[in-house]
Sequence to fold (120 residues):
Amino acid sequence: MIDIEGISEEITDFIHRKPILTAITAVILFFFVLALVVVMIQTRPAKKVKYEKSDFTPDSELIIPDKPTVEKDYYPSREIGKEWTEDEIEEYLTIPDGQILNELEKANDKIAADITGAAP
Fold:
């Protein structure tokens, strides 16, 4: 018959003699069991969800909500031309003047100085 007390004493002596090896073995064993559980869960076939398609049947008349007012320059859909007309150019395009370009140049120089300021 198996001597359980003798085996438990040998295990206890081994744990006291080599605690680092015991800890490393326990951690490796834990991760092995964890990996085994993950593999078992991942290889299990997925449950297929069955969707039932049903036709919509309203129980009363549908009420369409009030539309918000449409902005002047907003069009839900429109045809886009390949080129702008002269009226569109005057309405939407702003040609930058010297002051705007100088401000943009200063802002870009500041960003570049911030980026390269700490560089050796």
